[in-house]
Amino acid sequence: xxxxxxxxxxxxxxxxxxxxxxxxxxxxxxxxxxxxxxxxxxxxxxxxxxxxxxxxxxxxxxxxxxxxxxxxxxxxxxxxxxxxxxxxxxxxxxxxxxxxxxxxxxxxxxxxx
Amino acid sequence: xxxxxxxxxxxxxxxxxxxxxxxxxxxxxxxxxxxxxxxxxxxxxxxxxxxxxxxxxxxxxxxxxxxxxxxxxxxxxxxxxxxxxxxxxxxxxxxxxxxxxxxxxxxxxxxxx
Lengths: 113, 113
What we know:
The structure holds two protein chains of two kinds.
Chain A: E1 4-6, E2 9-13, E3 18-24, E4 29-37, E5 43-50, E6 55-58, E7 61-66, E8 71-76, E9 85-93, E10 102-103, E11 107-112
Parallel strand pairs in A: 2-11
Antiparallel strand pairs in A: 1-3, 3-8, 4-5, 4-9, 6-7, 7-8, 9-10, 9-11
Chain B: E1 4-7, E2 10-13, E3 19-25, E4 31-38, E5 42-49, E6 56-57, E7 64-68, E8 74-78, E9 87-94, E10 103-104, E11 108-112
Parallel strand pairs in B: 2-11
Antiparallel strand pairs in B: 1-3, 3-8, 4-5, 4-9, 5-6, 7-8, 9-10, 9-11
């Protein structure tokens, strides 16, 4: 079955770059997503990448996809204290036909001043 | 535009009690989902409804039932609550089943004692 793995915790200083990593096992994944969850809130879609892409950039966010290694990363440039949150990697299997996302356990990003 | 609205936000139940979690979306989305979030487990899909009139089991459906009341509303029922169902429950919706973005509600924090 599908499995998505993430490191559980990352601590950076304000202004540094953050890189959150994710590995997945389902080679049939169509879309790969990054969601952000702030304390007490629901999940907010940050960005996504199609499985036929290698990179996607959106303002401070850069997503890199290595299909061979089934590795996805999210880079946040100039990390701010407001970026402190839990970041979830998720994938949507090609054959599911629906947005039944499989999530990783989440990476808690702590940004210190 | 409220997006996805869940009620209640918090609930405490005694073991064996029943309750229904309500979810409504005002984005005219076809597909709706219920996830549960447990510490260290990420989000897991309980049930989903690809379109009005259809429901399907997700990864962890045992102990739950759902009803897609109409296009807007998708409820989750616990017939006989158990402590193992203590969790944060999230409802989500997407425009279509294969849409790239799922919108999440703020969550319902349920404690079963």
